[in-house]
Amino acid sequence: MKYSSFHAHSAIMQVFLDHIALVQPLVFLLETALAISLMLGFMVRLAGVVGVLFILNLLIGLYNDPTEWPWTYVGIICTHGMFAVAQAGRSFGIDNLLAKHLIPGLPYDGPVARAIALTS
Question: Strand, coil or helix: what is 103?
Fold first, then answer.
């Protein structure tokens, strides 16, 4: 990681780059899951937070690269952050259906209902 902003980040990412054949499918699945989650409005808060952390990692790793424009990553972080804060899935998404059926009376008062309420 030649352009990483921090030496510790570079060392950690080098471990992942040494096992790139295992990491690439996981990154593809994560990006696909985030896109599907945001499109369907399912667990939008969780997807927003994970998206922020994922893009923040890219920003830290590519900040000093002269061919990259860091403000692109800042814009994507802000977008994912707005998804997380605004509960975007509660307007037309699956989170809306979950909120109407599971959250108001919390008939399933347990860790699963609380997790759904927190992530949606």
Answer: coil
pLDDT in tens, the chain (120 residues): 677 778 888 888 888 888 889 889 999 999 999 999 999 999 999 999 999 999 999 898 888 888 989 899 999 999 999 998 988 888 888 888 877 776 555 555 667 767 777 777
Looking at the 3D structure of the chain, how many domains does it have? 1
Evaluate the CA torsion angle 37, 39, 45, 49 in order and state its sign.
positive
Would 107 be classed as within a structural domain? yes
Task: Examine residue 2 and state whether it is found in any structural domain, yes or no.
Answer: no
What string of DSSP letters covers 37-73? HHHHTSSHHHHHHHHHHHHHHHHHHHTT-TTS-HHHH
Please state, in angstroms and as integers, the Cα–Cα distance from residue 6 to each residue in 62, 66, 108, following that order.
Answer: 11, 16, 45
Its domain, for residue 25, covers: 7-119
pTM of the model: 0.81
83 lies in a domain? yes
- Looking up tokens 């996981």 gives 26
